[in-house]
Amino acid sequence: MTKDDSIPRNHKDIGLRSLAVMFKNEFLPFTGMQLPKVKDVIETNVPTIQMKDRGMDLNFLLEDNTIAHIEFESDTLNINDLIRFGHYDLQLYQQRQQKIRRIIIFSAGVQDTTMQKLDIGSVIQKHECLFLEHDFDGDEIFSKIKASINNNEAFSNIEKLQVILLPMMKSRKSTISKRAYELTNILKNYHDVDAAFYLIAAMVAVNYSGIDDAEKEKILEVLEMAKPFEELYKKFEERGFEKGIEEGRQEGRQEGRQEGRQEGKAEGKKEGQKEEKIAIAKKLLIKGMEPRAIADITGLTLHEIENLGNS
After folding, report:
1. Where is pLDDT greater, at 37 or 282?
2. Residue 217 falls within a domain, yes or no?
3. Are residues 118 and 236 in the same domain?
4. What pLDDT is stored for residue 244 in this prediction?
5. Sheet holding 67-73, edge to edge
6. Would you tell me how many other CB atoms lie within 10 Å of the CB of residue 34?
7. Alpha-carbon torsion (91, 96, 102, 104), positive or negative
8. DSSP letter string over 17-49?
9. Domain check: are 128 and 243 in the same one?
10. DSSP readout, 127-195?
């Protein structure tokens, strides 16, 4: 498998959680597999093992009370991958005592895998495979998505799902890394900035093992400097600057004006940063993220997060 990445785990969690919550009714039909409908999303909080471990990707509770465990892979499987998946499933089964159906979704470039099951004698594990190489034309879908963004058209849920999985689809013109960065560049100009932020985060989360480090860093910069937060920061900085000037005038002295400007700008920056964190927290609450995880990501207190949920 590819080496671990530098994207913080919370960005992966945001993206995968968004994928699960936003598309829980569309995701399994999108795969074309005959499965019961999704009843709920299961938190993927099983303990991790000591290896380059990413944690489980997605788990859906189905209407027949079985679990669909979804993993995204950009390379063929090896014995360590199957051991890792087996560990996840056994831990999850220990917690919930429900049968688990494992589905591996492979990105373009992987057309087959010899590791279909693992038999260690006392335990036999197996999985089903979906190869995006076979069934989706990534170049055609990319052209349609680009046209929709240029025309400020709203995405359907299926189209959003296509955006997230697009880097994994077959392309004659692009690689996973290049396509992920291309998508980020056009999405950052999308008229619905909230949707753009979450689509980028989810797209990175699903495709991270196939994205090169250089592209990861560029994409992370876009996530951290999303337009609404940058504009909010500037607005409060300007407000603080104006407040500093007014305080300086009231002092009636040049020293007071200088001091007021400095204090006003500092207060404005601090206030802007706090408002930015609150704006992010509200969006994550809407998407269903747990308050404790939001507190870890934003630096706000758990009490502040809970108050936002009650407001």
Report:
1. 37
2. no
3. no
4. 42
5. 38-41, 58-62, 67-73, 100-106, 128-131
6. 7
7. negative
8. HHHHHHTTTTHHHHHT---PPEEEEPP--PPPP
9. no
10. -EEEEHHHH-BHHHHHHHHHHHHHTTPPPPHHHHHHHHHGGGSB-SS--HHHHHHHHHHHHTT-S-HHH
- Per the CB < 8 A criterion, the answer to whether 241 and 268 are in contact is yes
Would you call 56 exposed, middle or buried from its count of C-beta atoms within 10 A (0-12, 13-18, 19+)? buried
Q: What is the pLDDT of residues 15-40, one digit of tens each?
A: 565 566 777 888 888 887 888 998 88
Distance CA 165, CA 144 (A): 14
- Secondary structure letter of residue 291 according to DSSP: H
State which amino acid sits at residue 301: T
Q: Are residues 125 and 239 in the same domain?
A: no
Asked if residue 234 and residue 130 are part of one domain, the reply reads no
With CA atoms as reference, report the closest residue to 289 among 198, 208, 200, 225.
198
Q: For position 248, what pLDDT does the model report?
A: 47
235 CB-contact burial (10 Å; exposed 0-12 / middle 13-18 / buried 19+) = middle
Tell me the C-alpha distance between 130 and 214, whole Å.
28
Quick one: DSSP state of residue 75?
S
Rounded-to-integer distance, Cα 74 and Cα 104, Å: 10
Number of domains in the chain: 2
Return the structure tokens found at 97: 């005592």
Sorting pLDDT into bands at 50, 70 and 90, what band is 101?
very high
> What single letter denotes the amino acid at residue 286?
I
Residue 9 has pLDDT above 50, yes or no: no
Residue 219 structure tokens: 């994409």
